[in-house]
Design brief:
This protein is α+β, with helices and mostly antiparallel strands. Helices cover 57% and strands 9% of the residues. It has a 4-stranded mixed β-sheet. The protein has a 3-stranded antiparallel β-sheet with strand order 4-6-5. A hairpin with a 2-residue loop joins strand 5 and strand 6. The longest helix has 27 residues.
Length: 261
């Protein structure tokens, strides 16, 4: 049985392509739209898109002829960059109006790998599955394309999954009485999304449940400073009520409101 050559596309935390074991150097992607075509196809279901979908994403304001010409040029350069022993057409073929990414290759995408691991993590009560999924998140999707509209929605969804997994990991550890591990997960969550008041509150509650009142109060001070600096806002009333209960010794873990809701 003939083994397919491999194509690996990394999109989390940065863009990298590895063709048949050879990494494409970063300087090869100096033409941004050539790279963008590959990124779009790597993110697309089955790694295929109609030419009009690519044009709408990359050149939405150009007239059809100019946009179509830009796509031809971008494909030409992308094919030259990605060719590794095959004909240029083989790695980015066009079938009618459909553009495909390396249909004869075994394609591995870190985004697809992460999304699969996320589904497995939510199906298992074992913290190890959640941690394994979190370890696959190397950073936000395509940070060098931060202002591209075609990236924004997917980037937000992936980041939301990452943050939700951190909260799940904390919950799983807390349910086992593993407070140190739960606290570490929530500390990572608030470091990743400093204005997430719910994550701060969950961390404050965990500190209080663990008998670390001083750390709970310090966490509230940090939350207050972050909200004032970043959002010109104050903590919610429920948060200040919680802190008052902790300060006054009225917080009791066995009757406190649940951390997770």
């Amino acid at each position: 049985m003939e083994v397919q050559p491999a194509l690996e596309v990394r999109l989390l935390g940065g863009f990298q392509v590895i063709v048949a074991g050879q990494s494409v150097p970063e300087h090869a992607w100096r033409r941004k739209r050539a790279a963008a075509v590959v990124k779009l196809l790597a993110l697309a279901p089955a790694h295929r898109l109609h030419r009009d979908e690519i044009i709408e994403s990359l050149w939405p304001d150009l007239d059809p002829d100019a946009a179509a010409n830009n796509l031809r040029v971008a494909l030409h350069h992308a094919r030259r960059i990605l060719t590794a022993g095959d004909s240029a057409e083989a790695i980015l073929p066009r079938v009618g109006d459909i553009i495909l990414l390396a249909p004869g290759y075994a394609i591995r995408s870190d985004v697809a790998h992460f999304e699969t691991a996320v589904r497995q993590a939510w199906q298992s009560p074992e913290p190890a599955f959640t941690r394994a999924a979190l370890d696959l998140y190397a950073g936000d999707l395509l940070p060098d394309d931060r202002y591209e509209d075609w990236v924004e929605g997917r980037r937000t969804a992936l980041r939301t999954s990452f943050l939700a997994l951190l909260r799940r990991l904390a919950q799983l550890h807390e349910q086992r009485g593993e407070f140190d591990a739960a606290i570490a997960a929530l500390q990572q969550a608030v470091a990743s999304e400093p204005v997430d008041e719910d994550a701060h509150v969950a961390l404050i509650r965990l500190f209080a449940r663990a008998g670390e009142t001083h750390r709970a109060l310090n966490q509230f001070d940090r939350l207050t400073a972050i909200l004032a600096s970043e959002l010109a806002a104050e903590p919610q009333a429920a948060t200040t009520d919680l802190i008052a209960a902790i300060r006054e010794g009225r917080f009791q873990s066995e009757v406190a409101a649940p951390i997770w809701h």
